[in-house]
């Protein structure tokens, strides 16, 4: 997959969507996360709400303003993130938190309503291995359509694993990103240089290291790269939307 790890531009379609979302009441300083166990806040992005828990080093110090801009979103527990969630589950009212969500409201709709994000990470690694990529495509489009209806800008992510054996899911994700003109966070490309491509022996879970991006030893693991490249993607999209150099 010869696509960059971090999105390099935001389409005019998505720029217009973002502005429409702000007019609808979305908060420009809020982002949400939609996904499975590899997106739970204890591992994914929450480190950036905890000074001293991460180190940007000199190479990545330019990301600090983005961390400050979205403070509070990083450690928020998304109502549309849970171990075992897939693209079908997040749009099913049966999987919503009954204490936080309205009757007949899906986890996705519940998250969009309660947090009013202007940007939404969509990262769905979990899928039924026996189901074809066409099923993933169908449900992922429903997820994205609903996010777009809310006026939020999606950032869609590829996955590190290839449990399906033919990279069909990542190919589907890339195709959807192209068709929808949405930013692609190509996490698969980020872990390819790592030992075992950043995967544990089960071929799914990511190798763990703390988020000190100036520590070469820790950066041999996938989790620091997941957090770093997600932050870089958010940073680039933010600058593009604000028309900053």
Question: Can you lay out the helices and strands and say which pair or pack?
Answer:
Blueprint: H1 12-23, E1 27-35, H2 64-69, H3 107-115, E2 117-123, H4 133-149, E3 153-157, H5 168-180, E4 184-185, H6 187-191, H7 222-241
Parallel strand pairs: 1-2, 2-3, 3-4
Helix pairs in contact: 4-5
Structure explained in plain terms:
The chain has about 240 residues and is of the alpha/beta class. It has a single domain, classed as Rossmann fold (3-Layer(aba) Sandwich). The protein has seven helices and four strands. The chain has a four-stranded parallel sheet. α4 runs parallel beside α5. It is globular and about 45 Å long.
The rounded distance between the terminal residues' Cα atoms is 28 Å
Lateral strand order in the biggest sheet: 1-2-3-4
Mean pLDDT: 94
Q: Under the CATH scheme, which class?
A: Alpha Beta
- What is the overall number of helices? 7
**Rg calculated over all Cα atoms:** 17 Å
Largest sheet: 4 strands, parallel
Question: What is the ordering of alpha helices and beta strands?
Answer: HEHHEHEHEHH
Shape: globular
CATH topology: Rossmann fold
Under the CATH scheme, the architecture is 3-Layer(aba) Sandwich
Kindly give the count of domains. Answer: 1
As residue ranges, the low-confidence spans are: none
β-strand amount? 5-15%
Secondary structure: helix percent = 25-40%
| Total beta strands | 4
Class computed from helices, strands and strand pairing:
alpha/beta
């Amino acid at each position: 997959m010869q696509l960059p790890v971090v999105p390099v531009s935001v389409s005019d379609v998505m720029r217009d969507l973002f502005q429409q979302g702000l007019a609808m009441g979305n908060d420009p300083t809020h982002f949400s996360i939609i996904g499975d166990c590899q997106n739970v806040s204890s591992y994914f992005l929450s480190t950036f709400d905890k000074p001293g828990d991460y180190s940007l080093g000199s190479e990545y110090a330019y990301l600090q303003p983005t961390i400050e801009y979205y403070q509070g979103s990083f450690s928020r527990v998304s109502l549309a993130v849970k171990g075992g969630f897939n693209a079908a589950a997040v749009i099913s009212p049966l999987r919503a938190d009954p204490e936080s969500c309205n009757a007949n409201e899906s986890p996705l709709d519940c998250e969009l309503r309660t947090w009013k994000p202007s940007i939404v990470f969509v990262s769905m690694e979990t899928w039924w291995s026996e189901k074809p990529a066409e099923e993933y495509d169908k449900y992922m489009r429903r997820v994205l359509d609903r996010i777009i209806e809310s006026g939020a800008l999606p950032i869609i992510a590829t996955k590190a694993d290839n449990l399906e054996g033919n990279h069909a899911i990542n190919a589907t994700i890339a195709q959807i990103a192209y068709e929808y003109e949405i930013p692609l966070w190509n996490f698969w490309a980020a872990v390819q240089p790592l030992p075992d491509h950043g995967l544990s022996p089960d071929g799914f879970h990511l190798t763990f290291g703390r988020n000190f991006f100036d520590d070469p030893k820790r950066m041999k693991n996938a989790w620091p790269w997941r957090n770093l490249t997600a932050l870089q993607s958010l940073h680039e999209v933010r600058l593009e939307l604000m028309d900053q150099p």
